[in-house]
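One such shown below:

_____
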Amino acid sequence: SLGKGGFGEVFACEWNGISVAVKVLHSGATQKDIESLHSEIDVLLPLRHPNVIQILGVVEQPLGYVMERAT
């Protein structure tokens, strides 16, 4: 685990041969937590900038997303 937050946890993983981070909701997530994660995805997904971590994919079960891993 790279870290834990109020509604999720971030894990270091390997995906398609690259080092990534995967953020997933805690198993006891509330509807508000789910909505917060959806909002986070909606904001980050379209962003393309060298100083912003890019979302590479969305995971449905458990709910979360795959993103570039900062080095």
